[in-house]
């Protein structure tokens, strides 16, 4: 059966594959391909995958969601049968389904809770007309931090993949918390991929810089976007840790710390915290290796709270 060539149907299918929910996207894909459920079941069976017509009906109506390994294997096969982009249906299963109150993404914590800086960041953000999470969820975040010859935080580069969960998102707020004694007037934020720097606000006493990164496009709900920026610091004293706060769960995070040859720590370890005053957990020793003298951590699915790497100089 040939796919539907109706532009309106195709546009709606593409929208649902971006934004979900899963059952509506599956229903639209079945309608676009003109495949009745019994024929879909037959094609799945030909690949050794046993799924009943009743289950397929439940899936497209939103009564049930596939979650068992065999069911997820069937979803992958459905993407091929329905000529959909690889992973397009599986990705939607990562989002909460209708009525799944217990699995919905928990509300974001404020920067106050994560950074223990009172209302400092909130005051800097006041008037920037963005919700606490900016209307974005993180899909992936790779961060590279460079420590200078004096042990100071020289700079950090961030490349992020985000997904919009509302229409009209066109910016991201980057927060840099320098080490005590840093000079925020000399800290520079530079946009280098798919964005440009907008408003920048600083709090000298707290050592915090908030920079607005303006996207090259206005996102719709479900759209993903890749952008990168760099923060040049080098104004603080010898540093002993780097910490990233996460206001909601989900998404991969990679942090790499690279040390100057003239300032190598005696030991490094990763850690996690549920809050600024909570004890460190998930401790693991890290050993600088290779000619780049770097350590790193990778978290496949971050939890709300704090994640970082600390090191000792002697």
Briefly say what this structure is:
This protein has 314 residues and is of the alpha+beta class. The chain contains eight helices and 13 strands.
Name its key features.
single chain; 314 residues; 434 Repressor (Amino-terminal Domain); Immunoglobulin-like; six-stranded mixed β-sheet; four-stranded antiparallel β-sheet; 8 helices; elongated
Q: How many alpha or pi helices?
A: 8
How many beta-strand elements?
13
Task: Characterize the largest beta sheet: strand count, sense, and whether it forms a barrel.
Answer: 6 strands, mixed
The third-level CATH topology of the largest domain is: Immunoglobulin-like
Radius of gyration: 23 Å
Distance between the termini: 70 Å
CATH architectural name of the largest domain: Sandwich
| Spatial arrangement of strands, main beta sheet | 4-7-2-1-9-12
Percentage beta strand: 35-45%
Q: What is the string of helix and strand elements?
A: HHHHHHHHEEEEEEEEEEEEE
Identify low-pLDDT runs: 97-118
Structurally, the number of domains stands at: 2
Which CATH first-tier class of the largest domain would you pick? Mainly Beta
- Global structural class: alpha+beta
Determine the fraction of residues in helical runs and give it as a percent range: 10-25%
């Amino acid at each position: 059966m040939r796919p539907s060539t109706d532009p309106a149907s195709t546009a709606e299918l593409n929208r649902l594959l971006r934004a979900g929910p899963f059952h509506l996207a599956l229903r639209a894909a079945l309608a676009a391909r003109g495949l009745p459920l019994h024929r879909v079941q037959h094609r799945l069976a030909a690949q050794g995958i046993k799924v009943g017509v009743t289950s397929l009906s439940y899936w497209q109506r939103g009564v049930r969601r596939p979650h068992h390994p065999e069911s997820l294997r069937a979803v992958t096969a459905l993407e091929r049968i329905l000529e959909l982009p690889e992973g397009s249906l599986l990705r939607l299963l990562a989002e909460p389904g209708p009525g799944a109150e217990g699995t919905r993404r928990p509300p974001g914590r404020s920067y106050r809770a994560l950074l223990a800086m009172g209302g400092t960041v909130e005051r800097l953000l006041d008037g920037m007309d963005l919700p606490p999470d900016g209307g974005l969820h993180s899909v992936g975040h790779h961060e590279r931090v460079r420590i200078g010859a004096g042990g100071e935080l020289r700079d950090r580069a961030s490349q992020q993949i985000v997904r919009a969960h509302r229409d009209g998102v066109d910016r991201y707020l980057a927060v840099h918390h320098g080490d005590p004694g840093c000079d925020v007037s000399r800290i520079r934020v530079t946009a280098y991929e798919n964005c440009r720097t907008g408003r920048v606000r600083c709090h000298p006493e707290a050592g915090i810089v908030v920079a607005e990164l303006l996207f090259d496009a206005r996102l719709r709900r479900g759209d993903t976007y890749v952008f990168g920026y760099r923060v040049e610091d080098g104004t603080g004293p010898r540093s002993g840790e780097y910490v990233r706060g996460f206001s909601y769960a989900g998404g991969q995070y990679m942090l790499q710390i690279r040390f100057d040859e003239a300032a190598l720590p005696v030991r490094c370890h990763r850690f996690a915290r549920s809050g600024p005053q909570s004890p460190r957990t998930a401790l693991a020793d890290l050993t600088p290796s290779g000619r780049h003298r770097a350590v790193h951590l990778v978290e496949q699915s971050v939890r709300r709270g704090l994640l970082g790497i600390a090191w000792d100089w002697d």
